[in-house]
Please model this.
Amino acid sequence: MSALALCIASGVRLALHPFLGPVMPGVAFCIAAAMVEYFFGLIPSLTVMLLGLGIADYLFVPPYGEIAVINRADVMLAISYPLVTLSTITLIERLRRAQFSAELIAAVALSRYEMLLRADNERALSRRAVDETHRLVRHLPHYHDAIILLQAVDRNAAQGAKEMAPGRLFASAHPDDIERLQRGLQPGRHRVRIGSGDGVHKLVECICERFTTHAGEFLILRRVD
Amino acid sequence: MTKETPALNTSTFYSGSDHAVLMLHGLSSSPLEMRHLARYLNSEGLTTCVPNLHGYSAGTPELKMEAWVTAAVKEFDALSARYPRVSVCGLSMGATLALALVRERPSAQAIVLLSVTLDYDGWAMPWYRFLLGWAYYTPLRHRWRYREESPFGLRNEALRAKVGRAMQRNDLSEVGPSSISLPALHEASRLAASVKKTLAALKNDCLLIHAIDDETSSPRNAQFVASNIGSTVMRTIYLDDSYHMITSDNEREIVARETAVFLKESEAASSAEGGAKPVVSKALARRLRQMAAIGK
Model:
């Protein structure tokens, strides 16, 4: 990359040489070193600066194409060019380091923000579970006489293994309906045949509600009054 | 739950659920430096195994890096035979070894890289660090050892003083060895070079945790892995109150918690029942949408 930057800087300065002559022999290399410092770092830019000094002195300081002759123009270039270029490189390097440091601090802030959001989600889930538990606790005594069955769903177990507890109307429900519901009970409306005292089964509107609590997930099927 | 008391350089195993985590410690160190993390993950229900790897761990004869990878693969296979899910977690050069291991065993559930070290380029590295690669080819190879010096990878001053005293007494402390040989450093460099070439082929879920003030491996190591690894599920966490030994330093609780959360999320996301936790926080949902939009 340093070599490419040197080639471009030399080409540009050579193209401008008919107009500029011996004026500002190191400016193109100074700009090249500053840009290399910004994009590629300190070592490549110092390389460009040092090699640029040699090229500028050889090609653009009279007498052109001779290295053995040292005159006032060579001394001027040897003092002014490294001074300006080093100052520029140093400033850019400091700014780049400050920028890198700021970017890392921003990355820490972002990491902490995302951790906070995840913890916030955990809290929201816990709060929801608490609310659901309270709702379940209120639900059970309120609909005590209308409950057909309760089902606990273990989400971690293979095939979503279920445990079932009968409600007060369980014994009155038609066995085929019970078997169907046990196979795949889903939240929502259902119609279940409930037997009356004379052995006749009547279709009754039922509703299944889901409760996601601390202890797990429960489905409760009850008759709609 | 079976629990064993870890000695200084013996393997540690904590039995838990059917998701096992193979934990790889740093170069020439011992399972002791992963003790806190292993216990925490186990308390969260995971099975954890911190093996003493032949040729890599302290107290074993120094071998080539290929032997390190073989030993790690052997431990992984032993866990795979018993547990349906095995994740890999590594600290420092152990993280680099974890990358090499996952390259050999792509079936790993997830990979957790703590202070991943591809180059020793942290701010506390001595100026002559670059010469050590060449010193390996001189008679210094078996005579000179790189000595660990303060801050020993620790920002916590009380712990640093304790570790400093331990290192004066023994060759090994709870955060690593007091010195590392040139052949071990040379093999570590070879391992890092081989891993760099194959990062893009790794597709496992990946968690990166790195301290921005890491004195041994700069955050550029984590940035390099993050921008080159082929994982689609990728989470990067930067810390600002720790140095290199993030499993023992000021933010060890954060490291442990985030590691456990990530491993459980990875497990839930890949399970057939889709047991991933629902997102109910609106702020988190918004952030996830932003990340999805910018393709992170």
